[in-house]
Amino acid sequence: MSAPKGNKNAVGNNGGRPKIEVSSLWDNWYNDILDLYSEGASDVEIRALIIDKCGFGSYPLWDRWLNEDGEFSEVIKHGRMLANAWWERSGRKNLKDKDFNYTGWYMNMKNRFGWKDKNELDHKSSDGSMTPTKIVFGSGNQTK
Question: How many other CB atoms sit within 10 Å of the CB of residue 108?
C-alpha cells in the first residue's frame, strides 16, 4: 500500500519495516564469529551472539543473510569448518584420556556433523533400469 495522497513523510515507503542488513552488525563481527566457531561453537551460539550484541536476530533473518549476503555466508561456512575441526581435534587428542566422555563426544559428532554408525548404499537406479541381479556360482546340478 503506498503513502496516502498528500503525505510527504511517507514518500517512497511501500509499507513494512526496512530489512535488517548485515551492515547493521558491529565492527569486525566476522572475527568475533570465527573466534567463537574456532572454540567449537554451534550456529545457535552464533545467533545468540548476534542477539546479545545487536538486540535483533531470528531464524528467518539468519536464513536470509545466508542466502542473500555472500560475505556472511562465507564467514558462516568457514566458521562451521572451524567448529568441526575443533570437535574432531578434541576427540583425537583425548582418545587415551580415561576421563574423556567419548559417548558424549560421539553423539555430538553424529548430531552436528552427520556422522553415522552405518552407511546404507542403494545400488538401484532411480528408474529401476539398473537393478542388481543375483549371481549364482556353480552349475546348480551337482551331485554327491
Answer: 17
